Amino acid sequence: MTNSSHSPAEHHCESPDCGCGNVDVSAALRVVVITLSDTRTIENDPSGDRIVALLKDVGHELAERIVITDDPDPLRESIQAFVADDSVDAIITTGGTGIAPRDLAVDVIEDLLEVSLPGFGEHFRAVSIQEIGPKAMLSRATAGRIGRVVVFALPGSTGAVTTAMNHCVLPIIRHASALVKA
C-alpha cells in the first residue's frame, strides 16, 4: 500500500499500533534545536533546555543544539546546513515568532518551506488561547517540511514552548518525519 492510498483516518495516528502500515512512528528521531536570541547562551536558555528535556523524555536524540542571534542570515544558513545533513530528522526553533521588529524567524523559515502546515500554528494558537487568552494571537508559530526534514518554529517563552511541545510537536513529530521520508 502506498502513502497516497491511506485513508484520512490512518494519517491521524499517534502510536506504533495505529494500523498505518507504511510509516514507522516508533523510531527515535535526531532533532536539532535552534534558539534565536540576542541575549541567551546554551548555559542560559530555559526554553531550549525544555525542548531538549521533552524530546529526550520520549526517546528522541539531540543531533545538535545552537544559539544564534535573531538575524535572518545565520538562521537561513543554519537551517540549510542541517537540512543537508542526512542524519537530521527534524529541526525545532525557539524564539523570533512574534511581531517585534527583530522577530524574523517565521519569515525566514516560511521562505525555506517546501510544504507548510498551517494547522500546526492554528492548533498551537487554539490551545494557547485557553492558557493565556487573546495574547496567543500574537504568535506566528509555524511548521512544515524542507526536503526530508520537518521544521517547527516555536515561540521563545518557556511556557509557550512547553505548550507547543506537549500539544503540537510531540504528538505528530514521529509520524510527520516518517511521512516526509516515505
Automatic annotation (TrEMBL):
Record-linked SMART domains: MoCF_biosynth
Classification via Gene3D superfamilies: MoaB/Mog-like domain (3.40.980.10)
Lineage start: Bacteria, Pseudomonadati, Planctomycetota, Planctomycetia, Pirellulales
InterPro entries found in the cross-reference section: MoaB, MoaB/Mog-like_dom_sf, MoaB/Mog_dom, MoCF_biosynth_CS
Function: May be involved in the biosynthesis of molybdopterin.
Residue span(s) of domain MoaB/Mog: 32-175
Protein name: Molybdenum cofactor biosynthesis protein B
Assigned keywords, A-Z: Molybdenum cofactor biosynthesis
UniProt record similarity statement: Belongs to the MoaB/Mog family.
Naturally occurring in which organism (per UniProt): Aporhodopirellula aestuarii
Pathway this chain belongs to: Cofactor biosynthesis; molybdopterin biosynthesis
